[in-house]
Amino acid sequence: MREAVAWLSAAFGFVERVRIGENHRAQLRFGDGAVIVGDVRGDRHPPRPGEVTHSVTVRVDDARSHCERARAHGARILMEPTDFEYGERQYTAEDPVGHQWTFSETLADVAPEEWGGISVRSS
User: Fold this and answer.
1) Which sign, positive or negative, has the C-alpha torsion 96, 93, 73, 30?
2) What is the pLDDT of residues 51-81, one digit of tens each?
3) So where are the chain's domains?
4) 4, 7, 24, 110: which is deepest, by most CB within 10 A?
5) What is the CATH number of domain 52-116?
6) What pTM does this model have?
7) What does the alpha-carbon distance between residue 26 and residue 4 come to, in Å, rounded to a whole number?
8) DSSP string computed for 53-73
């Protein structure tokens, strides 16, 4: 667990905020958000090869430079930074145990109707 926190901090720029036990859980800060990583025990396990267990998207200021940082620390880049019609530049990386992370940079505020989405307004 400590190795995972160190790697996520170095490769993705997370900053450890809270540690619960030496190898139980950690809250990692990133910008205005946070992610909690937990130990592997019971029915929790890293993804097996070819298995995707979840999807995490993290907002970044510069997807290209963030991607290069992650690559330099050994992240496997599954999708290079790509610009999408909905106004986001995104890339997807895999950490050393197989968790997939998508990092997204906002390029433009594009109305969902312009790319095939639907705006939903609550009353």
Assistant:
1) negative
2) 888 889 999 999 999 999 999 999 999 999 9
3) 1-40, 52-116
4) 4
5) 3.30.720.110
6) 0.85
7) 10
8) ---EEEE-S-HHHHHHHHHHT
